[in-house]
Amino acid sequence: MKNGSAVENSDKMLFALLVTPLLLLALWHLLNALNKKYFVLSLCKRVQTEDGSPLETKVVVIPGQTWFGNNLDLLNFTPASVFSFIRESTAKAEGKNYLWYFLFAPEYNVVRAEEAEEILQSTKLLTKNTVYDLIRPFLGDGLLISTDHKWHSRRKTLTPAFHFHILQSFLSIFKEECNNFITVLDKNIEGDLDLNQIIPQFTLNNICGKAYIISNRCNIEFSLLYIPFLETALGVKLDDISEGNEYRKAIYAFEEVFIQRACNPLMYYDWYFFLYGDYRKHSEKLRIVHDFSSRIIQRKRQQFKQKQLGKVDEFGKKQRYAMLDTLLAAEAEGQIDHQGICDEVNTFMFEGYDTTSTCLIFTLLMLALHEDVQKRCFEEVENLPEDSDDISVFQYNELIYLECVIKESLRMFPSVPFIGRQCVEESVVNGMVMPKDTQISIHIYDIMRDPRHFPKPNEFQPERFLPENTVNRHPFAFVPFSAGQRNCIGQKFAILEMKVLLAAVIRNFKLLPATQLEDLTFENGIVLRTQQNIKVKLAKRVK
Ligand code: HEM
User: In angstroms, what is the span from residue 13 Cα to ligand 1's centroid?
Assistant: First the structure.
């Protein structure tokens, strides 16, 4: 009996020895076959071409540094290393679009205008990607992040608030703020002017609060109490400087936490962020920001009711309101609630402040570094009427060369270096079948440095934007304000605001270099940042 069971056992062992490798081989083949369609170790479906041609003909797949796709490539990066990693990836892909594989979803990186066009024009790819979820606690379902019906109806409601006639009425506010700004510069002609300190205060004042704070060395005090953006888009003046200032600081701190999160893929998970991230700072700053916007809205609501704004003016035309009035009018008609208004106000404060200041900082730097360009701008603005009160929107529109300078600065240093979309269902994009949840990053920075569209892309050449030089350019090669349905609603506002400031600065001062481009380390944030503050010197122009 014993002998019989021993034989049986050895048969079993032999069987196992023969079958196990076969099973493993079969499993290996199965996994290999599965891995063609799915990136097994990244738990996501692969991108395929629509016509069955090799994927490499459409996109470069950048191999990850481990077997787990690109999941660990970005771990614990800093904002500066994220910026250089993205640029290196573009270089590795030799200017072609490229793919990464992350946990649960691929990421399609677009660096070419040709493919960006299809995405930005698509009516199906309007949903923002997961990076935007990190700012959702701040901006809620405001225009930047919302999607589908909510976004459509809000965009329709808010578009008239940026109509030419409304912009015209903002002009006097921009000018007043600008005059104050020039007075401040006049008092600080000595030494280097730290643009990162003073410009964000100007643009936030154009948004929400007047308080120029510059280091004691420069000796500028909390002197000005004026709030153009609140007054322009929002139609409110702040009485309390410290209130606006606390708000500005809270936004800055929120952005710092955002950057920390954005640099670590694990931090995208709320539970991980709650346990290991700066969750307390995040919540505290959000409370300050939200309380501030809520108070502004309450104040404006009172004024709105008191004024009893009618729906038609004396000529029977529908009245055009600034942004917050527009929202309050929509609230009166039951189209939006208090939370919706808060989300929009936060979105506009946020979108309208950092973006414009980043562009102004780089434009002033480039003017200081390029004397010939500055001279040409000076000749152009010199023709404007002496008294700034007499300068009309039309005259600002005619500052063609200054506009080229702003555009060239935006091309080289786009305030928003990348934007994101995602496929909410399996979709065909640029001839490839993208699985549901594929993340799409459109790298505006790289698109606008593509030498096929901008020869010698690292050279500052405003002439590229003179009308005669743009005729044959690809329409999506220059997209600092994005394009298509989800383009920037505030672009005309921004260009006018920047022209008013730049014209005034150039008329009054000669800008001289202090910071050189080589001194700067770039960082990826919500907007493009540099580790070092950017400085210029000023020399008063003799009239
Ligand atoms: C130089 C200045 C500016 C630049 C470079 C800029 C750039 C952009 C870009 C690239 C987008 C698309 C974002 C995306 O798809 O994720 C955008 C959207 C937006 N911008 Fe701007 N922006 C600027 C100024 C402004 C200003 C001054 C305002 C408000 C007054 C504003 C309000 C918005 C809003 C609300 C959106 C979302 C639009 C939508 O999705 O319907 N922006 N901006």
Answer: 69
Nearest in space to 180 (alpha carbons), one of 218, 220, 207: 220
Give the start-to-end residue ranges of the domains of the chain: 1-30, 134-540
Mutational test site, ligand 1, from 355, 358, 497, 500, max ligand atoms within 8 Å of CB: 355
**Prediction pTM value:** 0.89
CB of 352 sitting under 6 A from ligand 1: yes
Ligand 1 contact via 347 beta carbon (within 6 Å): yes
The residues, ordered by sequence, that sit 6+ positions from 230 with a Cβ below 8 Å of its Cβ are 207, 208, 209, 236, 237, 238, 296
Residue nearest to atom 43 of ligand 1 (CA): 488
pLDDT, tens digit only, all 543 positions of the chain: 556 677 788 888 888 888 888 899 988 888 888 888 898 888 899 999 999 999 999 999 999 888 888 888 877 788 898 899 999 999 999 999 999 998 889 999 999 999 999 999 999 999 999 999 999 999 999 999 999 999 999 999 999 888 888 888 788 878 887 888 898 888 888 889 999 888 876 666 555 433 333 332 222 222 222 234 555 556 555 555 566 678 778 887 888 888 888 877 788 889 999 999 999 999 999 999 898 888 888 887 877 776 655 554 444 455 556 788 888 888 888 889 989 999 998 898 888 878 998 999 999 999 999 999 999 999 999 999 888 888 999 999 999 999 999 999 999 999 999 999 999 999 999 999 999 999 999 999 999 999 999 999 999 999 999 999 999 999 999 999 999 999 999 999 899 989 999 999 999 999 999 999 999 999 988 889 999 999 999 999 987
Q: Using CA atoms, how far apart are residues 454 and 461, in angstroms rounded to an integer?
A: 10
12 Cα: distance to centroid of ligand 1 (angstroms): 70
What is the whole-number distance in angstroms between the Cα of residue 488 and the centre of ligand 1? 4
Pick the CATH number of 134-540 from 1.10.3720.10, 2.50.20.10, 1.10.10.10, 1.10.630.10: 1.10.630.10
In this structure, are residues 170 and 232 in contact, taking their beta carbons and an 8 Å threshold? yes
**What's the 407 CA to ligand 1 centre distance in angstroms?**
15
